[in-house]
Write a structure and sequence with these properties.
six-stranded antiparallel sheet, four-stranded antiparallel sheet, 36 strands
Length: about 375
Amino acid sequence: MKRLFLVMILFISSTICTAKENMFANEMSRFCLIECGFLNSKGEIAIDPVFDYVNQFSSIGLALVGSGYKSVFINFRGESIVDTKFDDAEGFSANFLAAVKLNNHWGYISDDGLIAIEPQFTEAKSFAENGLAPVRWEDEWGFINTKGVVVIRAQFEDVYSFDESALARVKKNNRWGFINEKGAWITKNEFDFVYGFADNFLAAVKKDGKYGFIDTKGNTVIQPQFDYAANFARGLAIVQKNGKLGYINEKGEMVIKAEFDGAVDFNINDVAAVKRGKSWNLINKKGKLIAALKYNGSIEPLSNGLFLIEDRFYNQYWYNSSGELLLYTDAVCSMMTLKKTDGTIIWPRTTEKELCKYLTKLR
């Protein structure tokens, strides 16, 4: 991330979004042409692409964005809330604290932009909803509370923040396991790797080269048997068998046959993208075809229910969950633009004729 320097704190009182505003903010997804902004779930520009970089909105409805050497937190309207004075920063957590870096050490600020926990750590990650955050001293990780008090001593090689299960995945002696909020192991550190617990409170784990699933008590629910597995999303999980990808339910039953060369999680509309050869298709949770997508490349399911495809020439295409192409990028007079399917330029906000006329004058 680019170096950030002192500006000033703005609009402090408007930091906390209402529930409705926060929901709207979380439905927006970032996008980048030459510069970056946000799209809503209809594929409309919600915040103009005027930033050098943007991070996704956090659970409190703020996003860290930057232009040049200046970074700010914005709300869903694109209004500046907190300007930063730090060398680096992360997003705000549900506890209204954000990790920041100053003079080569990490600490935390509150949503008024003031220091809440003095920069003193080698590295720091976001606070979880339980009020604990992972921090690193030299080579070891531990956990602090929102007052900066150490509650789990530094002893781990690597860690992730606590998830909704109030468990954290940690690495010790080169093996992964889970601990509770008191630092006690709820599993042995016996895994090659572990994912966090999903909303069904099952976690994918890798042991002896195979993937299975455990519950929050450390019990094996689905035996390690897959070459790969992702966490459950909307009740189904991607798994790989014999080089092909499919989906299982929470009983470990293969409900969508492993026959795909690529697959992504089901989104908020219960739609997933799967790939055969070079072609992507959208399917429902019964494996039924919804739509075949015209363009090929890498695909990303966005938080607002859209799918983004980027081809090898860096052209981008946005589809909705019905398989309708909403937007695409196109070079006009050597400038990258964002267009609707009828060819209308929506960014920059001008016509093709006027844009080319303007660019010709610049040259």
